From TrEMBL:
<feature type="transmembrane region" description="Helical">
    <location>
        <begin position="1"/>
        <end position="15"/>
    </location>
</feature>
<feature type="domain" description="EAL">
    <location>
        <begin position="24"/>
        <end position="276"/>
    </location>
</feature>
<protein>
    <recommendedName>
        <fullName>cyclic-guanylate-specific phosphodiesterase</fullName>
    </recommendedName>
</protein>
Length: 290
């Protein structure tokens, strides 16, 4: 009976594995088609200064709805495209699409910056460098208007990548270190990289309570980033309490649903010039041990 159960378990496992592999192949095939047809769109989510209530930029976030289905989240399909070795095509598409949709808007607002999520491999890619240059020239934009986000989960390790990053930074592009605190939080490496802003991952944000309640992990992480001389952007701000918590600790730049959801360009542009919610900064004396 034990042998039978073992064989049954093995057969079920193999079937499950085949089903998963089948699904992965089906996703590959649909993504190959989507890449050929450039079937992706972008949403833009504001990044605001929550002390003075101004939108200072936005993050471009990719969206994909297969022809016959529901939207597939980027967390699901981006890793598949990476495994297909075709992430460079996506990064370039996103840069071109930002230019097409927001080129004129950005030209009129030299202080405004759109950030694009890129892969370490893009940094060493001549094609990607050329793609950025073309976008800037075509739309008359300054390099600092196209910022580049690198996730801490995928560290920049190769010399060619770090070199490419230095060249892009020297040209005037600004780098954001995304998802900070979730990956290979290596403050020594951060110090060696031309990173202008660090995006504190939304798991930290979710862990804070009332503005006055202390959260030693969040506070020491903020302190550590500041010690390296980088600006902080806090991600995943969903409530006014969270905004107040960070404002009380001197953080100005915030991103999250409380400020604005990711929306298509046409909806984003009218919002960008309007005041955003401002965090109420409580009296520092109200800070208490949690
Ligand atoms: P990310 O770069 O950290 O982007 C932020 C994610 O948090 C977005 O999810 C955004 O919709 C979500 N978000 C924003 N505010 C809030 C909030 O207040 N609460 C919560 N719970 N979530 C919030 P999205 O759009 O699903 O993107 C997921 C990830 O996919 C991104 O994380 C990024 O790593 C990747 N991604 C998105 N677009 C691109 C792209 O164009 N290229 C590449 N390579 N990766 C992309
Ligand atoms: Mg990002
Ligand atoms: Mg992020
Ligand atoms: Mg993230």
């Amino acid at each position: 009976a034990a042998a039978l159960a073992g064989a049954l378990a093995a057969a079920l496992l193999a079937a499950g594995w085949r089903a998963r592999r089948f699904r992965a192949t089906a996703l590959d095939r649909r993504l190959t088609e989507a890449l050929r047809e450039r079937a992706f769109t972008l949403h833009y989510q504001p990044i605001a200064d929550c002390i003075d209530g101004r939108v200072v930029g936005a993050e471009a976030l990719i969206r994909w709805t297969p022809r016959d289905g529901k939207p597939v989240p980027p967390d699901v399909f981006i890793p598949v495209i990476e495994a297909m070795g075709r992430i460079g095509e996506v990064s370039c598409f996103v840069v071109e699409q930002v230019g097409r949709e927001l080129g004129g808007f950005l030209r009129d607002r030299p202080g405004f910056s759109i950030s694009v999520n890129v892969h370490p491999a893009d940094l060493a890619s001549q094609t990607f460098h050329a793609c950025l240059r073309t976008c800037l020239e075509r739309h008359g934009l300054a390099p600092r208007q196209l910022s580049l986000e690198l996730t801490e989960r995928q560290p920049v390790t190769l010399d060619a990548e770090l070199d490419g990053m230095q060249r892009l930074a020297a040209r005037g592009h600004q780098f954001y270190l995304d998802d900070f605190g979730t990956g290979h939080s290596n403050i020594v490496r951060l110090d060696a990289m031309p990173v202008h802003r660090v995006k504190l991952d939304r798991h930290f944000t979710a862990s804070v309570g009332a503005a006055g309640a202390r959260n030693p992990i969040v506070e020491s992480t903020l302190e550590m980033i500041r010690e390296t001389g980088r600006d902080v952007v806090v991600e995943g701000i969903e409530t006014s309490d969270q905004a107040s918590y960070f404002a009380l600790r001197g953080v100005r730049l915030m991103q999250g649903w409380w400020i604005g959801r990711p929306v298509p360009a046409a909806q984003f542009m009218p919002l960008a010039d309007r005041p955003t919610p401002v965090a109420t900064v409580p009296d520092a004396a109200t800070v208490t041990a949690a």
